[in-house]
């Protein structure tokens, strides 16, 4: 029984010297983060395919059971819209190969304009992908959430290749007007869609966005604590990513979420103790 938790990134200016040791060189930051959380979203790969040497560094800094959910590059999903991007996909797959088993899923985040009428394109793309990896799709077109027929058609396409549907739960953010600059910025950028909590595979992935106020973030994730507990009891192995608009306390919140699930399931293994934020001394 294993629950993995993580954040949208492994380095953040407001973590340095407070949650993670200050002055860490870039090649050590993921290693330090991995003592706090055992999963991370690979958002940077959306903007550029990393060099293979960079990915080799990621692998060196993490254990084989650490989970990366790696986003496909923007040229594949948003510019080519899953058609005619064979060269870009080949380069991406070659680059991430050093992660080995750490690649928990390749994450196909589709633009909000990708509609139910595009499902044939998605089905073709998924069937052509190498079976070496598991895949997860995030959609943002409202029809997939408001139209039951569109929802079922998407589920059928995903089920045909054992692909998971990744929900991005922003309902807590949009429950009331923003109260900080970070929340105001999130209001303009994040999708406003209903919460979806149905798993299609044995490895569901949740992206949850709370508020900058810790109590509101915790209050908003209570349905997910119940759902993740249920999934674990069913034998599934979920991964949960905790976001807030400013992400200042995301690692501690991710651990808090894990603790809340573990309160329902004491047999769930605890997370390891995080690295101290200051170097250890003899005195």
Automatic annotation (TrEMBL):
Pfam families: DUF72
Superkingdom of the organism of origin: Bacteria
Secretion signal span: none
PANTHER family xrefs: UNCHARACTERIZED PROTEIN YECE, UPF0759 PROTEIN YECE
Protein name: DUF72 domain-containing protein
Species whose genome carries this gene: Nonomuraea marmarensis
Classification of source organism: Bacteria, Bacillati, Actinomycetota, Actinomycetes, Streptosporangiales
């Amino acid at each position: 029984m294993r629950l993995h938790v993580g954040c949208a990134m492994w380095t953040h200016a407001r973590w340095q010297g407070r949650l993670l040791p200050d002055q860490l060189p870039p090649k050590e930051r993921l290693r330090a983060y991995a003592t706090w959380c055992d999963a991370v979203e690979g958002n940077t790969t959306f903007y550029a395919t990393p060099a293979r040497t960079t990915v080799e560094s990621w692998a060196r800094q993490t254990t084989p059971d650490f989970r990366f959910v790696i986003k496909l590059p923007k040229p594949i999903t948003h510019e080519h819209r899953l058609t005619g991007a064979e060269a870009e996909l080949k380069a991406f797959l070659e680059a991430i190969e050093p992660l080995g088993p750490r690649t928990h899923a390749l994450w196909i985040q589709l633009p909000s304009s990708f509609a139910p009428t595009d499902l044939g394109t998605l089905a073709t793309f998924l069937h052509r992908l190498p079976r070496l990896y598991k895949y997860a799709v995030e959609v943002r077109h409202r029809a997939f959430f408001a139209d039951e027929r569109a929802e079922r058609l998407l589920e059928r396409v995903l089920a045909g290749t054992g692909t998971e549907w990744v929900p991005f739960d922003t309902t807590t953010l949009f429950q009331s007007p923003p109260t900080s600059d970070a929340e105001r910025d999130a209001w303009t950028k994040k999708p406003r869609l209903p919460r979806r909590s149905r798993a299609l595979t044995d490895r569901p992935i949740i992206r949850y966005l709370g508020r900058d106020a810790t109590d509101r973030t915790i209050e908003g994730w209570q349905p997910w604590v119940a759902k993740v507990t249920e999934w674990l009891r069913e034998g599934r192995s979920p991964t949960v990513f905790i976001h807030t608009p400013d992400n200042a306390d995301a690692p501690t919140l991710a651990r808090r979420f894990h603790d809340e699930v573990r309160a329902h399931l004491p047999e769930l293994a605890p997370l390891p103790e995080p690295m101290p934020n200051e170097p250890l001394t003899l005195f």
